[in-house]
């Protein structure tokens, strides 16, 4: 299955929750710290508790890179635990000159076998082209992010009167010739989401920021429903991963993701 086929199969079920595996060893339930590989064991439980209901998974490289070679081994083993019919996003935010991006793309798509990746567009089209050439993958390009610092650059106005993030969205639509592009748009920027949702076209939208960062799942789902656009993923990380510290936390995780899906369904 291509990345888009995997995603469409889940979206057709009205599943829109992306489980963010930003696994912090300092936040996982304490009873797991006696395990040989605590992070990997935690991820296994989270995946088994959510695989039936998740639209996708997003593995944040930073939480694995910090452990060096051992961390990359844990990342690869985590990836292997995820069912092959579920989209997996490498949250690596790559983007560099062409030959460097080519190596990054080979690493993520060929060596590790991810379906998708997050990218930043600051260096322009040629820095992203090696990723976009993989027609069977999905590339989520940063447009308007969920953090406060988004205003430093992404919300600067150009001479045309458009914001930088609006220019990015326009460019990504142009680059989407293989139908393998998406954008990252912060769920915390709900006013901007409502104002710009009509410009998204056929782009898949990944929305981080729900939960710990203060974004509202209800507002996001309502906005897409009103726009008659079901092509979106709402990433939830900390609010889902650490919803229960008890040894039986898997049941709480399953209940919570089912509740998230029900919320989206009720608003559709």
Summed up, what is this model?
The protein is of the alpha/beta class and 268 residues long. Helix content is 44%, strand content 16%. It has twelve helices and eight strands.
Describe this structure as you would to a colleague.
- It is built from 12 helices and 8 strands.
- With 268 residues, it is of the alpha/beta class.
- It has one domain (3-267): Alpha-Beta Barrel (TIM Barrel).
- The protein has an 8-stranded parallel barrel, surrounded by 6 helices.
How helical, in percent, are the residues? 40-55%
What is the number of beta strands? 8
Unreliable stretches:
none
Tally of alpha and pi helices:
12
Overall pLDDT score: 96
Tell me the strand order in the biggest sheet: 1-2-3-4-5-6-7-8
CATH class: Alpha Beta
SSE layout and pairing:
Blueprint: H1 3-11, E1 17-21, H2 38-50, E2 56-60, H3 62-65, H4 68-81, E3 87-94, H5 98-111, E4 116-119, H6 125-132, E5 138-144, H7 150-153, H8 164-175, E6 181-185, H9 190-196, E7 204-207, H10 217-226, E8 232-236, H11 238-241, H12 249-267
Parallel strand pairs: 1-2, 1-8, 2-3, 3-4, 4-5, 5-6, 6-7, 7-8
Helix pairs in contact: 2-4, 2-12, 5-6, 10-12
What structural keywords apply?
TIM Barrel, alpha/beta, 12 helices, single chain, globular, 268 residues, eight-stranded parallel barrel
């Amino acid at each position: 299955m291509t990345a888009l086929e995997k995603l469409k199969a889940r979206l057709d079920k009205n599943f829109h929750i992306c489980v963010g595996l930003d696994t912090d060893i300092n936040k996982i339930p304490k009873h797991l710290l006696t395990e040989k590989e605590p992070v990997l064991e935690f991820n296994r439980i989270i995946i088994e508790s959510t695989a039936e209901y998740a639209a996708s998974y997003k593995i944040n490289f930073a939480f694995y890179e910090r452990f060096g070679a051992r961390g990359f081994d844990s990342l690869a083993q985590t990836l292997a635990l995820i069912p092959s019919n579920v989209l997996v996003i490498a949250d690596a935010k790559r983007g560099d000159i062409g030959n460097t991006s080519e190596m990054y793309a080979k690493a993520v798509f060929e060596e590790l076998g991810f379906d998708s990746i997050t990218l930043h567009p600051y260096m322009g089209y040629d820095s992203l082209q090696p990723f976009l050439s993989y027609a069977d993958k999905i590339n989520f390009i940063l447009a308007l992010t969920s953090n406060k610092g988004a205003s430093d650059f992404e919300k600067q106005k150009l001479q045309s009167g458009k914001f930088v993030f609006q220019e990015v969205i326009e460019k990504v639509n142009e680059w989407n010739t293989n139908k393998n592009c998406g954008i990252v748009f912060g769920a915390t920027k709900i006013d901007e989401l409502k104002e710009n949702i009509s410009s998204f076209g056929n782009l898949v939208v990944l929305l981080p920021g729900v939960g710990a960062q203060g974004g509202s799942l209800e507002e996001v789902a309502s906005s897409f429903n009103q726009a008659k656009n079901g092509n979106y993923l709402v990433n939830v990380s900390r609010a889902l991963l650490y919803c229960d510290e008890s040894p039986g936390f898997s049941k709480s995780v399953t209940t919570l993701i089912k509740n998230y899906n029900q919320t989206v369904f009720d608003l559709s």
